[in-house]
Amino acid sequence: MSASAREKFRARILEWAAKLDVKATAIYIRPMKRKWASCSTAGTLSFNDELVGMPPELGDYVIVHELLHFSVPNHGKLWKSLMRAHLGDYEVLETRLKNLAA
Ligand SMILES: [Zn+2]
User: Fold this and answer.
1) What distance in angstroms lies between residue 16's CA and the mean position of ligand 1's atoms?
2) Can you give the residue range of the structural domain that contains 44?
3) N or C: which end of the chain has fewer CB within 10 A?
4) Are 65 and 84 in contact, with CB atoms under 8 Å apart?
5) Does position 102 have pLDDT exceeding 90, yes or no?
6) What's the burial of 73, exposed, middle or buried (CB within 10 Å: 0-12/13-18/19+)?
């Protein structure tokens, strides 16, 4: 994958972090097994580098999903309504991503 695609993905993460008012202490884009992303209580975000080559809307799904966990640690009603507010019909993206991982 090209360095510029990687930089674009990182820029996308930073854009969403600003929009959602999330203060990440560090952002990593690295190989991950069986996970698209993770966040730590210390504010570290990790994203699977396979996302870099994927359609941007799928990257957005994973980015917003993970960033919302900074304020909402579960996938409950509030998380779902925020996902919908930012991404619209996010379940469609969720399904596409699941199908890719299978
Ligand atoms: Zn989650």
Assistant:
1) 16
2) 3-101
3) C
4) no
5) no
6) exposed
